[in-house]
Amino acid sequence: MNAVATVTLQVGGNTLMLLPEKAIFLPECDTLLIADAHIGKATSFRQLGVPVPAGTTGETLSVLTRLIHRLDAKRVVFLGDLLHSARSLAPDTLTAVLRWRELHSAVELTLVRGNHDDRAGDPPAMLDIQPFDEPLMLRGLALNHHPRPAAGGYALAGHLHPCVSIGGRAHDWHRLPCFWFSERVGVLPAFGAFTGMQAIRVRHGERVFAVAPDRVFELQAKPKSA
Description:
By secondary structure, the chain is an alpha/beta fold. The chain is built from four helices and 16 strands. It is globular, with a radius of gyration of 17 Å.
């Protein structure tokens, strides 16, 4: 296995490990935080007649499996938009998700409902995923889907699919997903293999950590928003 470079922060009295797989691990409680998996998005598009690649749900679940095994995670909390739509769990997709769940039957799965979950409905009971409205409080953290401050804890959220543009020596620009931390809210990049990205505008005092395939690194200067 290739080594990966993570970044560790202290936020809201908790240790946060920022992972190149676009997730956060909380080592004090063996918990993975995942935002915007959008399971079944490609299936939903194909049902609407949009030709998109197959296999993205399997790719998303495979990455999550690797993280669970590598970190020995006991719990996964999805910060909203676990399912993309009510069409997401077509028979083939549901079968794949069920098989994945059976492989990780000992892992506690929790969903903080997001806007796509409101439309898709709660996951089928057979998946044993416990849904909650935001915020879900955990060790002084307020786990949200929407990136807004919460009373009683530092908020961690998704929804925005944040990214930054990184310039190279040849004056070319590359868009990278990122973690984005302000005084009261931290935003995770979208975890799913088939999701878009949204460029962010970074304000003074905020911290941004860009995500490359094998490492997470902090941007010291204000990145270009484009």
